[in-house]
Amino acid sequence: MTTWPDNRTQRLLGIDLPILLAPMAGAATSEMAIAVAEAGGLGSLPCALLTPEQIRAEVAHIRQHTTRPINLNFFCHQPPQFDVDRENNWKKRLEPYYHELNIDPQAPTPISNRAPFDAALCDLVAELKPEVVSFHFGLPDKTLLARVKGTGAKVISSATSVDEARWLEQEGCDAIIAQGSEAGGHSRDIS
Length: 191
Hints:
Elements: H1 8-13, H2 30-39, E1 43-46, H3 52-65, E2 70-75, H4 84-100, H5 119-128, E3 132-136, H6 142-150, E4 154-159, H7 162-171, E5 175-178
Parallel strand pairs: 1-2, 2-3, 3-4, 4-5
Helix pairs in contact: 2-3, 5-6
């Protein structure tokens, strides 16, 4: 096997290969994280759809099957505020499509259950001590970020623009993932 010409990522994250499992909420599993970690990459657990109890159980399962570094991934978005008028306006505008597809336009609109990173999740990170913690949609507030870094975890986050990458660097990210819109476009408004 040839040596990778630049191994800064491997040294930073404690991995053998510059391969990171994308922590895709709803798609990546603890089994995938174990397989990637055991192969020498960074296994990732997407936590945005999981409760703290589920995260704790998944990490315990991963730790039973590998001693390699793992990444816990969280979202740092601002949950949208429900606006009845806005909801009614877009439903009214799309009503012809609802009828065309035999969907009841008065049916309740599904809501997102992706929880943003908060103090309780930060407590969980301090308890579980993953080697890496990654974020999408920016970073948590400075106090929470300092607590995460205080556990010894390396912090990485995704950027979809040069300005966002610069902001992440200024805020203390250890590494930045350059992410195109074809990969989900987890962008944060940094204006």
